């Protein structure tokens, strides 16, 4: 049974947050606190797939960044706080995809503290962050894939599905210490240690105990010359995870080292066109995915006379781990080894505070069961963003 379409339930709160930048501009002198807010409203229609119907997804985000140098004289430091709230449905329950269809969808619709960290600049050398940090802000990220709505274009599925309850990415982060170094022009090095359990204030039970399930260690090295990006990364958990299938003599799951590696590249192909390609692998024993791949294009100023218009197209593939597929087959849910999806989307600014983004996705169904159907998903995204603080 599909859930009925619902109106914009968080819109009143979003409109209230629209006043934040105006309040921040009330003073003629610069303020040490920058406030920003955005409200995403997605109408998602699953036109074909295991089930059909229309569902609503929304996400309100409020960001506050304090310049501690200006506020209290703490040179090179700033504090960042992000609160999110969503009240939408779960359209992927209709589409039945493995990797997901909407990067604003969450199974737990309640306000939560998404980020809360202190960042200390190290001059030209780099910076360090300490607190609850979104891993995907720095790691496994390509700007050219940011317009696409399907979750795999944010972070590879093999990393997104790892750990006790997923790494520190949307919708829940974890205590993190992260270091960024720039040892040479156009070269960067990233390293971070994160609590293996991602839970924040607002999640049931609140933040998880520190290091109860160990830590996630991740590193990335990149080169950014010529307006592009080329990077290699790797990650591993300090505590072994349950094997998806293999057991010991007593029937308990064997414990395996969870690890993975990824590579990504994005490159301008002209003044307005940028291409990206990414791919990653994992151990395949402890997660549902043994790897993933994404590629696509981003065109800016896509419409004549519309400088804010953008157009993007992408392809993603998630390689389902053999052990995970074997477990599904034992339960009567036989799956193909790869889920593949195609997405085309465009965005334009209708007003300084409003953008519209139609989106079309086709996802090849992985189920081998009789009557299974590929998913065709149409989304209309509206994003309300108050004018930035002057």
TrEMBL record:
Superkingdom classification of source: Bacteria
Signal peptide (from-to): 1-24
Keywords assigned: Signal
Transmembrane regions: none
PANTHER family, alphabetized: PORIN B (PTHR37944:SF1)
Stated family: Belongs to the OprB family.
Name of the protein in question: Carbohydrate porin
Organism for this UniProt entry: Novosphingobium bradum
